[in-house]
Amino acid sequence: MSTNERTRFAPTPSGFLHLGNAFNFLLIHKLAKKKNADILLRIDDLDTARSRDEYLEDIFETLEWLGLNYHEGPQGVDDFKKNHSQSLKKEHYRQALSKLEGIFTCTCSRSDIKKLSPEGIYPGTCREDQLRFIEGETSLRYTYDVENPLRDFVIWRKDDLPSYQLVSSIEDLEKDITFVVRGFDLKDSTIAQKHLLSRLAPDKKNISFLHHPLLSDENGGKLSKSEGALSIREMKKSDPSPTPIYERFEKWYESIKDSIQ
Question: What's the pTM?
Fold first, then answer.
């Protein structure tokens, strides 16, 4: 019987998926099975500069190779582009801004912020300036009163697209997601999203966020597509079976299961 629990895979098509992505998928699948939860596939494709068809194809191929099914979502690249791409819902996301107080226009670039704050934390430079939004020149930031490095996060980008924080929150609400499984590196993001969720749908039941330790490379660093982590695509060339990945995942899971929170 269904418990009405729902979670999601949410990869980005900005590079070929690596072992860390696979472990996250396998963990989501394991926890969803325990909860008898449905799994939704959501592809976060708002990074238009880096999104490519071959990366989209890699997502579907990796899930199929690992034998991970999902209950809802796109069934391939063409279906995704036609019916599920987040770029199709830009104006829908924009409408949600009217539900939020504390939005202001900002002209600061990342390099500007770095000059003002070595830690890269936005110092509130434009918060009181009441600037006009100009596509290509300004972004919209959202401020809220918590001790969090993301307290003034970008909610609408300079390229006139919604931010990840806004889109992820809206999608989780509209798809009735009940729990999210993500890495410890996204804990600050979780705080920001919980705040957004409470403002966008104050009467809706809270979404649970479970955080897990990250899979490290040989030097103890974070596995990352941008850092050139070994991709699943390359692993399949040397071993066409996913069995070694499953075996390694189970060892990793046993070592981290008590620290998931």
Answer: 0.91
